[in-house]
Amino acid sequence: MAAISVDPSSRLNNNLDQVSSSTKNNNHGGVVIEEVEGLIRVYKNGHVERPPAIPNVHCAVPSPLGVTARDISIDKCTNLWARIYVPNSSSSAKLPFLVYFHGGGFCIGSAAWSCYHDFLANLSSKAGCVIMSINYRLAPETRLPGAYEDGISSLIWVKQQALNGSSEHKWWINKCNLSSMFVAGDSAGGNIAYNVTTRLVGSNYKPLCVKGTILIQPFFGGEARTGSEKQYGTQQQLPNSALTLSASDTYWRLSLPLGANREHPWCNPLAGYELRVDQRMVVCISEMDILKDRNLEFCNALAAAGKRVEKVVYKGVGHAFQVLHNSHFSQMRTQEMMSHLNAFINQ
């Protein structure tokens, strides 16, 4: 791998070396009240454990991709940071700017996870865009709307850096066409991307201007079960599924405001609420995903409301295949997704 770029904030490096301080105490001994096996365990006294299911990696990128990656600090008080991906190019032409939110049910995941690092480095190279991957605060320590607020705070921070002519960040900001910005994410990150985009409607974030929204298997829910939730809801029904119905329910209990159910608008955007979307949107849907029907219903509702939405269904693959599945078939579908995203960003 290429040499690692050292971030000026040691706090970021500590994050990469330690998945979670809570994972160091494997003999906590308290009463477990919520758990997604192998991913998160929440105790009655508030203690949270997140086993290192996926390795965190530093920001080195294999040289053939022609991408430079570095970590930047956005807000040291909340430990909000991001990983920036910039295609290496001698051209003076400005590049599209994509803000990305990782998945993980709002409760797990990191911009430093190896699967997201690899996916976004490849997307930056393929689509020729600068990517800012946000490491937002997680639930249950920070319930929604904390992740949405981190997304908005990140955009305000970029706006300030651009307007102030920051010398520290000109290495990447000067490469961006900030008037050609895309907000994107997968799973819970897709939910965040949607809710961040709706909060931008009618607001002035110049020189930032959202040109489009990319939702990859967006994590939405509801009290009534859909056909795909019943069909693909258990490991027995879909052994390779990255999201079971039980895990989905647990993530919502941990992330929604206390007392809220799955008809809350942050979970179910179709529960009688206005769809506030102005920009064009693409929704990437997996055929063998419990979220398939909700994603299709979401697209149909947008289209019926006169919104500009494109849907793409990837056959034969499940939730998060593009970051978690390494089979040849999944890799083929991932390349299809890369091509679709490239076309959407650069059209």
Structural commentary:
With 347 residues, this protein is an alpha/beta fold. The chain has a single domain, classed as Alpha/Beta hydrolase fold, catalytic domain (Rossmann fold). Helices cover 32% and strands 22% of the residues. The protein has ten helices and eleven strands. The strands form two sheets. Strands 4-5-7-6-8-9-10-11 form an eight-stranded mixed beta sheet, sandwiched between helices. A three-stranded antiparallel beta sheet has the order 1-2-3, with helices on one face. Helix 2 packs across helix 10 and helix 3 crosses helix 5. It is globular. 43% of the residues are buried. The N terminus is likely disordered. InterPro entries: AB_hydrolase_3, AB_hydrolase_fold, Carboxylest/Gibb_receptor, Lipase_GDXG_put_SER_AS. One of its GO terms (molecular function) is hydrolase activity. Pfam families: Abhydrolase_3.
